[in-house]
Every structure is written in structure tokens, then in C-alpha cells.
Amino acid sequence: MTGRRDRKKAATRKALADAALELFLERGYDNVTVKEIAEAADTAIATLFAHFPAGKEALILDDSGEREASLTTAIRERPQGTSPLDALHAFFAGRAPFREDLPAEYRRRMDLILATPALWAYARTVWIACQDTLAALLAEAAGVDEPDDSLHVLARYVLETPDLASARPDRAAALAEAFAHLKRGWPAL
């Protein structure tokens, strides 16, 4: 059970993120300041940065370890007989922007990210920060103690793939094609 302080922190984070999203959708990302977001959430600017030290981008793309945890789950809890690369393909195919059945609010957020260069770049940066974790997971799946250069390269390619595929007209097909190439390059995975 979470305590009162944790619930209050979570409520403040949500109020800030909700205010940012509404202002960004209403006026555009570049036309909103952190001061306006803090005011809309009835907090101080210092409070905003205490919760989101990375700034405006983090208000929309907060991570808090979710990406690394999700990658870990995708690899470690993949169905029996499923290769790590097939599991990663399924993982990314099930996330925005590759899913067509997203709830309306999430679709609005995704459209904002795809239309805003600063947000798209930040999303890529957050994913690329998972490279060492993914390389270690791939090493584990391959039965080796430490990832070699090849697994670091593969991890980077895997993490770059959604960014590249999401810019294509048929995102899902581009993602599938990219993973087909990765599987040819790393057939053991």
C-alpha cells in the first residue's frame, strides 16, 4: 500500500503531465512554457522540475524505468519457442505508433509526439538509453555471461528500428521488414 506522501507525489506528477498534454494539444509544444504548465497544474516551477528534471519532454514521455522493465519482460517472459528477436518484434508491434487500436487519449499523445521534432527526438533518446540493458538481456538469452560488441550493435539496431519504422507510410510493415533483416544478421537470436 502506498502512503499519503507517495499518493500526493503521484497526483502532482499526473496533474503536471495532464496540464502539459492539454496545453501542448491546444497551442502546440513550442508555444507552451514550463511556467504555464506549472500554473495550470497549480504548482511551482521548482515542483515541476523536482518531478520532471528532464523538462518539458519528460512531461509527455515520462519513463521511470518502464521501458527497461518492459524490455526485460519481453525477453524473459517470451513464450516457449519464441526467439528473442521475435519477442522484441511483437513487443514493439504492440506499442504505439504501430498499434491501430489505441485509446483516443493515447492516440492524441502519440500524434503529438510524431508531429513534434523535440518530442520525437526525446523519445528516441529515452529508448537508446536502454541499449546496455537490452544488450545484457540478449547475452542472457544467448547463454553468454557478457554482451560482446555484436550484441551491443544488435541492441542499438533493435532500439533504433521503431524510430525508423514509425516514419514510414506503413509502419507495421516497415517494422516487420526491419526485424526480418535483423533475424538474418543474428540468426541465433
TrEMBL record:
This is DNA-binding transcriptional regulator, AcrR family. Residues 33-52 bind DNA. Gene3D superfamilies: Homeodomain-like, Tetracycline Repressor, domain 2. Signal peptide: none annotated. Residues 10-70 form the HTH tetR-type domain. GO terms for molecular function: DNA-binding transcription factor activity; transcription cis-regulatory region binding. Keywords: DNA-binding, Transcription, Transcription regulation.
